[in-house]
Amino acid sequence: MAGVSVRRAAAYGIDAPVVFAGFGFAVLSCLLMTTITDGPAPLVGAGLLALCAAVQLHTTVRGKFVAWDEVLTGLRLRGHEEVLDLGCGRGAVLLAAAKRLPDGVAVGVDLWRSVDPSGNDISTTRENAVAEGVADRVRLRTGDLARLPLLDESFDLVLSSLALHSVAGADARAVAIREAVRVLRPGGRIVLADIGHTRQYAAALTELGMIDVHRRGLGWRMWWSGPWVPTTLVTARKP
Q: What keywords is this UniProt entry annotated with (predicted)?
């Protein structure tokens, strides 16, 4: 299907709100330092921190949507697939996928913790699905990514954006990867975006017999405060 507009009718919250609080505190501290310290260092520090916060804000309110639009467009979905989003949160990726599935279904799984993204709640995601006009093709489930409440080989595509790194421990993340493969149909694809552990994801997918396993950066649109925290995409296909 052709790309879908990244214009959004719903509210998707702020990723890592505690990070913005940290930036705010640090900028304020630098500004206070100007009252007791000579020289430009505190002002320079405040400016750099503000720039990092601006980069992070751009990523969370626009950049990630543009990046995922390009990823989803590149998948060339036919519109009838069954798609799973692991750690769907308020639905940024889930609903973007659902817009490309006029005859398909998009299922989101999450534990619905309210800290990251801000306001993460199953009722909010339902409201967002209504606002985006895709409620008829969206299903939401509560579940642990390491113990998915889903049947074997029930999805054509498994997505995840910035969720797997929150699974504590390498062993638990490996189990989550195994679960993603379990629910994927033969010929189906896995597309995972994350800020860490992506080499582990790729290795685990290879060990599980997945083919066409690749890693690539998603570029500046998904930098979190700067190039030192990039987002990497891992893709694979089930034979």
A: Membrane, Methyltransferase, S-adenosyl-L-methionine, Transferase, Transmembrane, Transmembrane helix
184 torsion bin: left (phi>0), alpha (psi -120 to 50), beta (else): beta
Tally Cβ neighbours within 10 Å of residue 37. 12
Within 13 Å of residue 17, how many CA atoms lie on the same side as its CB? 10
Write the pLDDT tens digit of every residue in 109-150: 999 876 555 567 899 999 999 999 999 999 999 999 999 999
Backbone angles phi, psi at 229, to 5 degrees: -130, 75
Q: How many residues does the chain have?
A: 239
pTM of the model: 0.88
**What is the C-alpha separation between 184 and 71, in angstroms, rounded?**
19
CA 44 to CA 50: how far, in whole Å? 10
DSSP letter string over 48-117?
HHHHHHHHHHHIIIIIHHHHHHHHHHHTT--S--EEEEET-TTSHHHHHHHTT-TTSEEEEEE---STTT
- Domains plus CATH for the chain? 75-237 (3.40.50.150)
